[in-house]
Design goal:
Blueprint (H helix, E strand, L loop, with lengths): L7 E3 L1 H9 L3 E4 L3 H6 L6 E2 L18 E4 L4 H12 L4 E4 L2 H7 L16
Parallel strand pairs: 1-5, 2-3, 2-4, 4-5
């Protein structure tokens, strides 16, 4: 899944503003990472299964993609852009999101952590 299609990138605060305005946040981390902590309202589509779940994402709306640190999301953002999606990569991933004091919940819906 390596593509060179460049995509727009934003920091966590910019991503949060977009999400607050209705932009879909897609978290591509694996289930164990997601269960420990994720952004409220994010859609969980693990990188390992994203190709088979693309039908869950509309090409009509812009989406923000995140992972733990930004490496995986960059590759997935390029993949999505190459496949006709309007996508933004969140720089620094959920580690930066959490470090900036933005909300993180676990799979039970209470305060979570990023692993």
């Amino acid at each position: 899944m390596l593509f060179n299609k460049s995509t727009k990138a934003v920091n966590p605060h910019e991503a949060k503003e977009l999400v607050d305005q209705g932009t879909l946040l897609i978290d591509i981390r694996e289930l164990s990472e997601w269960n420990h902590g994720h952004a409220p309202g994010a859609l969980h589509l693990p990188m390992s299964t994203i190709q088979e779940h693309l039908h869950k994402v509309s090409k009509d709306e812009e989406v923000v993609v995140c992972c733990r640190s930004g490496s995986r999301s960059s590759a997935v953002a390029s993949f999505l852009a190459a496949n006709g999606y309007s996508v933004i990569d969140m720089k620094g991933g959920m580690a930066a999101w959490h470090a900036h004091g933005l909300p993180v919940i676990n799979s039970s819906g209470v305060h979570g952590s990023i692993v």
